[in-house]
Every structure is written in structure tokens, then in C-alpha cells.
Amino acid sequence: MYSYRAFGKWGGFVAGYATLVEFLFTPPAIAFALGSYGHFLYPQLSVLYTALGCYLVFTAVNFWGIKESANVLLLVTVLAVVELLLYMGLLLPHFEVANFLAHPVPVRAAGVFKALPFAIWFYLAIEGVALVAEEVVDPRRTIPRGYGYGMLTLVGLALGVMVITGGATDWRLLQNLDYPLPEALGLVLGKGDAWTKFFASIGLFGLVASFHGAIVGYSRQLFALARSGFLPIGLAKLNNRQTPYWALVAGGLVGCLALVSGRTDQIIVLSVLGALVMYVISMLSLFALRRQEPELVRPFAVPGYPMVPLVALGLALMCLGALVYYNLRLSGVFLAGMLGVGVVYRLLGQAPESVEVLDQSQMTSDAATSDS
């Protein structure tokens, strides 16, 4: 609704499509990593079938309702943070600055730009916090706090793991693995060490937390788009626990089809493409609405306007340009998908006729990723 208000129905459509691609294609890549990790622990397990099983289990968990889903998400998130803190604590005594500096990464401009999708991947879908704004108490206060705590946690843990791992091991031995953390512990402590075996058994929590959170995100995004008329209205149906069950099922089917393709790297690129397009149109919507409606009630006021959003817009455009340049075919797939969905929307969708008066909770949800 934020971009709809700024640029009309097609602006809203582009923002909705981009966000949907991001949230639909994030979970398959995480599920594949879960399958790979399960195969590492128990070689008899199939990577694909384990990943598909994860979809089945966590889709079922989400059918309980948002309160139950949030409780599960909170539990696995706490366990994931404890897991990473334990990992850093075990490696820290073996950290050496000389070792960290011994094998510098060969930094080249082309390599940096090619790696952008995987760098952005660390923080992808955190904007999903805004998608539950209608299901939390006092969203004006809780949503900004959720964003703040989430970003601090992500940045702190990512930097800590990167630096300590690089100083305790040789990163070159880990770069092609789907399970680098238990392998790093194995290199330092020994494969037979009790801590190595224990960490390998709990190492799934971080992936589980990300996967579960992404499922919550795409189901609410599908529901919101259907309720607003951008997708078939059936996806907005709720069960007796107020869960958008058809949105959960539809998103899960798309994710499973993506998994069967077996192209995890391409799935990640598509997801990041969606995120960057969404970032760009959100920033453009921010500037448009500040100019068109300066007196509009804004639950989240961006600090440092206009420089902070200008920097954000510039970085998003730079990353988007690099991503398209190095992934022309996938960018074409993304654009073709947008055109195809646009035709469906033109034939079947019924966007709201007026956005003059927006429900406060809806405005909170839609503005959170743009004006905050």
C-alpha cells in the first residue's frame, strides 16, 4: 500500500511482486542448506527429501496460528544465538591475529560485485518483521524495536563468526562447504572431540530459525497482496486460528518446485533481485510521499532525511545494477515473471479503488520497510 499510495496501482504491483519473489525464494535455499546439513550428520538422509520434509513440518507448525508460530520461532532463535556464541567461545582461545592476516582474500572489483547476492543474503528478509505488524501489540513501538534488535544481532554475530573463524582456521579449507562451522571446529579441536560432535548436533538451529521466519513472512505477504486485490482473493482466506492457510500452502508449493530444480545459487540470486527492487521502489516511494503528502501521519520517521534514504537508494541501485550485469539471464527470468504476473493481475486482480484512508495497522506494516 505504501508504493500504491505513491505511484498508483502499478507501483504497488511492482513493490508487491518484488517482495513476494524475495520471500518465496528465500526459504528454498535455506531448506536446501538444512537438507545438506542433515546429510552431513546422517549420510543416509537425502538432501532433497530432507529439505522437502522441512517444508512440510514447518508449514504444519504455522497452521497453529501466529502466537504458536512466534513461540516456536522465539525458541529456535534463542537456541541459534546460543549456538553461535558457544561456537565463538570454543574457537576464541585459538584465535591468532597472524593467522587471520595470513591468507587475505584476493579482493577485486569484479569479484566483489559478483559476490553481492551472497553478502546481501546474510540480512535478507529482515524486513519481514513489518509483515506481522497487524498481529502484535502496539506496533508503533514493537516493530522498530524488533528491527533494531534484529539488525544488531545479525551484524554482531556475523562479524564475530567471520573474524574468529578466520583467526582460528584457514578459511580456504571451508569455502566450498555447506557446513563450514562444524568443519571449522573439527579442524581446531579434532573431529572426534566431544564439543565438535555436540555442536554438529545443534548446528541446525540457526537455519531452522531463518527458515521458519521466512515461512511466516511469505504467508503474510501473500495474504496481504490477496486482501488488497493484487492476487486471487482465495489466498486471503483464514482458518479458525486466523492463519492464512491457502497462502501457506501456495508459498510452500512454489518453494518445493524451486527445490526440485536443484539450483540453489540461482534461487538466491532471484531472491536478492526481488529484495533490491523492493528496496529501490520503497525509497522512491518515500521521497514521492514526502513531496506529495508532507502532512501524512508517519508511524516511522526516518532519521537524517534526506541524506540517509539517498545513501540507501544509491547503494540499492548500485547493487541492483551489478546483480543484473552479472546475472542477465536470471534478471530476464525475474522480468518475465513480473510481466506474466502483471497479465494475471490485469485480468483477475482488483486493486483497491482508493487509498485516501488507510487502516493504521496496515500503514504501520507497509511503511515499516520504507520510512524507517
Topology:
Elements: H1 2-7, H2 9-41, H3 47-62, H4 66-91, H5 97-102, H6 109-120, H7 139-168, H8 180-189, H9 194-202, H10 205-227, H11 245-261, H12 264-292, H13 307-326, H14 328-348, H15 360-367
Helix pairs in contact: 2-3, 2-10, 2-11, 2-12, 2-14, 3-11, 4-7, 4-10, 6-13, 8-9, 10-11, 12-13
Sheet with the most strands?
A: none
CATH-defined superfamily: Amino acid/polyamine transporter I
Q: In oligomeric terms, what are we looking at?
A: single chain
Q: What's the shape?
A: globular
Percent strand: under 5%
CATH level-two architecture: Up-down Bundle
- In the residues, how many domains can be counted? 1
Overall mean pLDDT score?
A: 82
Q: What is the H-and-E element order?
A: HHHHHHHHHHHHHHH
Which structural class should the secondary elements be placed in?
mainly alpha
Q: State Rg.
A: 21 Å
Secondary structure tally: strands: 0
Q: Can you walk me through this structure?
A:
The chain is mainly alpha-helical and 372 residues long. The chain has a single domain (2-367), classed as Amino acid/polyamine transporter I. The chain has 15 helices and no strands. It has helices spanning 2-7, 9-41, 47-62, 66-91, 97-102, 109-120, 139-168, 180-189, 194-202, 205-227, 245-261, 264-292, 307-326, 328-348, 360-367. Helix 2 (9-41) runs antiparallel to helix 10. The longest helix has 33 residues, at 9-41. It starts with a helix and ends in a 5-residue tail after the last helix. Mean pLDDT is 82; it is low at 353-372.
